[in-house]
């Protein structure tokens, strides 16, 4: 099921003019504060009646201002998950979930409820009240409640923003399962590059009310032209990798970027797909294969583009196997190595520079592309 959105709206000095398609999976609405993410989500949910809009999901028209059609929020079948879980404190987890079912026309089936309880890992919590749950557990229940209303799409507005790092790490694998097991579009608003890199199938990058770029996460994240909008410190590429084996010295060997990638041990079995985010700041470039050097990862590739701005840095994109890698070097180094599109070089990445939080489960799109090659 695909969500198609086209919205134009004016508020005083701000104009939103954005169109995008959100297929099944997680579509991240990403952009700096004030770029229009909430306005866009409100236009999709019906909380805002835009000047002009067309919103359609799975062939069902929710809003078409040209035809004078704009369904109110309660007729749009949208599931919502906010920063705070907003569960009913006097009801148990089970009763909170049943509240979601009550809102669905078909009332959902027991089998559907069991599947969601299992997927979200909340079986042991069913008789507790929200006061006895951690923030991450509450959010998992809130997701279950939203899905049991059998929505046509799920809107998640900064669902992890109120959680500490440990609770975020606990809930991310459930969100990855949600992404892979649910066939409705999930719109996910976030300020966090780490969350977007880990979860999103598609990214819509917003800036001052406009879509700067939309496309598959790997493509948007590794576009050097977008690094300033993403944040130079946060910029980096997302690689689609496959677990090859776990070595006795604590390293996991992955196949990525047409080469071997060694990282401190991660979970998963040989053959599993994972996505790995590599910060541009953590990548060195060399024209020659490095000799005696401590970094374990040497990924050969070809420079595809170089982006410079007013500062001393240069963002270099290279193609390595099926992946793109982003490296942030100085303009001085780029000149000294005479880097230009077509230059063959090696990206050097220290194993320990890749944080555990930057490695996530690969999504179905990776599995699909794998089977077609
Ligand atoms: N009801 C309103 N009236 C007037 N201006 C508004 C209204 N709502 C939002 N705006 C303006 O529209 C712009 C976009 O706001 P919006 O809340 O959509 O951004 P955002 O990307 O969600 O920001 P944040 O990440 O801070 O939540 C801002 O300049 C904001 O001041």
TrEMBL record:
PROSITE patterns with a match to the protein in the record:
ABC_TRANSPORTER_1, ABC_TRANSPORTER_2, MOP
Do you know which SUPFAM superfamilies this protein is assigned to?
MOP-like, P-loop containing nucleoside triphosphate hydrolases
Record keywords: ATP-binding, Cell inner membrane, Cell membrane, Membrane, Molybdenum, Nucleotide-binding, Translocase, Transport
Q: Which domain of life is it from?
A: Bacteria
Gene Ontology MF annotations: ABC-type transporter activity; ATP binding; ATP hydrolysis activity; molybdate ion transmembrane transporter activity
Q: Which residues form the ABC transporter domain?
A: 2-233
Where does the Mop domain start and stop, copy by copy? Answer: 292-358
**Pfam families found in the cross-reference section:** ABC_tran, TOBE
InterPro entries recorded: AAA+_ATPase, ABC_transporter-like_ATP-bd, ABC_transporter-like_CS, Mo/tungstate-bd_C_term_dom, ModC_ABC_ATP-bd, Molybdenum_import_ModC, Mop_domain, P-loop_NTPase
Q: Name one GO cellular component term.
A: membrane
Q: Which Gene3D superfamilies match?
A: 2.40.50.100, P-loop containing nucleotide triphosphate hydrolases
Q: What is this protein called?
A: Molybdenum ABC transporter ATP-binding protein
Q: Which organism is it from?
A: Thalassovita mangrovi
List the gene name: modC
């Amino acid at each position: 099921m695909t969500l198609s959105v086209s919205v134009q709206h004016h508020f005083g000095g701000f104009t939103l003019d954005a169109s995008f398609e959100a297929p099944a999976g997680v579509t991240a609405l990403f952009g700096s504060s004030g770029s229009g993410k909430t306005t866009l989500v409100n236009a999709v949910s019906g909380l805002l009646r835009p000047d002009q809009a067309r919103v359609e999901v799975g062939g069902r028209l929710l809003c078409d201002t040209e035809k004078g059609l704009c369904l109110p929020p309660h007729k749009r079948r949208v599931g919502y998950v906010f920063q705070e879980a907003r569960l009913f404190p006097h009801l148990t987890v089970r009763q909170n979930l049943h509240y979601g079912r009550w809102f669905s026309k078909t009332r959902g089936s027991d089998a559907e409820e069991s599947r969601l309880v299992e997927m979200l890992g909340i079986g042991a919590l069913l008789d507790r009240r929200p006061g006895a749950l951690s923030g991450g557990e509450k959010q998992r229940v809130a997701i279950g409640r939203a899905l049991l209303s059998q929505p046509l799409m799920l809107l998640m507005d900064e669902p992890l923003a109120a959680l500490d790092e440990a609770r975020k790490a606990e809930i991310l694998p459930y969100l990855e399962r949600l992404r892979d097991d649910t066939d409705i579009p999930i719109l996910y608003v976030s300020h966090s590059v780490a969350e977007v890199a880990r979860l999103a199938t598609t990214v819509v990058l917003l800036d001052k009310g406009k879509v700067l770029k939309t496309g598959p996460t790997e493509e948007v994240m590794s576009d050097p032209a977008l690094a300033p909008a993403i944040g130079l410190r946060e910029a980096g590429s997302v690689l689609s990798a496959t677990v090859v084996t776990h070595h006795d010295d604590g390293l996991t060997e992955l196949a990525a970027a047409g080469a071997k990638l060694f990282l401190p041990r991660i979970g998963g079995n040989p053959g599993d797909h994972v996505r790995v985010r590599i910060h541009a700041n953590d990548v060195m470039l060399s024209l020659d294969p490095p000799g005696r050097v401590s970094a374990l990862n040497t990924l050969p590739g070809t420079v595809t583009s170089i982006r410079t701005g007013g500062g001393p840095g240069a963002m270099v994109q290279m193609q390595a196997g099926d992946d793109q890698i982003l490296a942030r070097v100085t303009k001085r180094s780029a000149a000294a190595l005479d880097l230009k599109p077509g230059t063959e070089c090696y990206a050097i990445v220290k194993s320990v520079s890749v944080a555990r939080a930057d490695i996530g489960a690969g999504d179905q799109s990776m599995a699909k592309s794998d089977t077609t090659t």
